[in-house]
Every structure is written in C-alpha cells, then in structure tokens.
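Collaborator request, handled under Task 6.
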Amino acid sequence: MNTDKKQYHALATDYDGTIAHDGIVDDDTLAALSRWRAAGKKLLLVTGREFNELRRVFPHCDMFDRIVAENGALLYDPATQHTRMLSPAPPDAFLTALQARGVPFTLGRSIVATVEPHEHAVLAAIRDLGLEWHVIFNKGSVMALPANITKATGLLPALEELGIDAAQTVGVGDAENDHAFLRLCGLSAAVANALPSLKQNVDIVTQGARGQGVAELIEHLLADDLQYLTPNAALHIDAHY
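Structure tokens returned to the collaborator:
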C-alpha cells in the first residue's frame, strides 16, 4: 500500500446511479468533481454506457482525464478526443441471432445492450454460436461483451496512460458491473443507494446517495485523504501493475 502522505491521486467513478440520477449529474456533484481536479487530482469516468449515448446525455465529458466507456471496451481521452478501442466489434452473426430471437438491443462500438429478461436469449445466442462472450448485469440492464472485457480491464490502461498506480486510485460505484474495477482500486467505495452485494464488498459506504455520496467522498479525501481508513486487503486484487 502506498505510504505517501498524499495517498490517493485519482478518483474513478461510475456514471448511472453513482454520479448521475436518471442520467443527469446535478450542479453540486459537478462542483465536487471540479474541486477534485482543481486539487491536482486525476478524474476518471468508468461506465457501461455506450460512448455516443454518453456524450449525448452528459455535456461535461471534458472534465474527466479519461473515460472508460462500454463497460471497459473503449477508452477516450477528452483532451485530445482520441478514442482507443479495447475490444472488437460484435460479430454480425451474433447480431443476426439476436434479431431472429426478437431481442431488442442497442449497439455501441463493441457493447451489445438490452434489458432483463432477454439475457436468456442473449446467452442462448452466445452458446449456439460458440462465442467467447459473457453477459454483465447492471440493475436490470444486460450487456454482452467479449469474456475478457470488464471495467477493470478498461481502467488499467487508462491509469497507465496517466501514470497512476491502481493502489493510488479510489473507485466508487453502485451496481453489479462495478465489482471488477472496485477490486482493482486501492480504496473502494459504494454510494448509499448501491446494491447490498456491492456494499458488502467495499471499504467504505457513503451516507449520501448518488452524487451526494460522491461529493461526500471527495470532501473526505481532500480533507485528510482518509488516512484513518485502512483498506481491507481481502477485497482487492493486486492493485499494482
């Protein structure tokens, strides 16, 4: 664990249900995120949202140092507007199979997204085609991606580009698909509205929900870097690379 007095240098946050409520990030949350960056810290967004949809609903992408979108499939640098694909596009045969099964879906650069209970048809298509893909859940949403793609695999290259160790990173989220990247971070947090299963597997749970909880977390970090809190090593995979 990093023993530098300024222990945490980056904050990696989920979008929906974490900083956003019904897809909207309020002014108080935006102000807290701005205070974090003004303190010389790095800010990363780690979301399951399709990239083009995210840019449509969230006009403040440029306040982040890096954006990991589509549940780890895409990495975006707002400063240079460079997009780096970390996962291939879905096979045409897979999309055809979903259409044949009557599955409503939206398509990102790599991710294929639908809703419950269509996960059964998605899994059947993956099985029948012999694809090495997996299904990820997010509070009723269903996402299909190659088996080796998660929010954690997307966060790692983002941190590498910024020169930040995962052990120096605080992660915060609210749902099933956040487990992977929170285990990677040196300190993990869940907002008050997070799923019980996530709350049971993080270092800290905020008192506030959604953006209020993230703002609360930021204020504590800027005040004393949460030096009184020792992360539970059993919750984290090796956070160094």
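The cover message to the collaborator said: "Residues 10-86+149-235 form a domain with the Rossmann fold fold (CATH 3.40.50.1000). The chain has a mean pLDDT of 94. Please let us know whether this matches your experimental observations."
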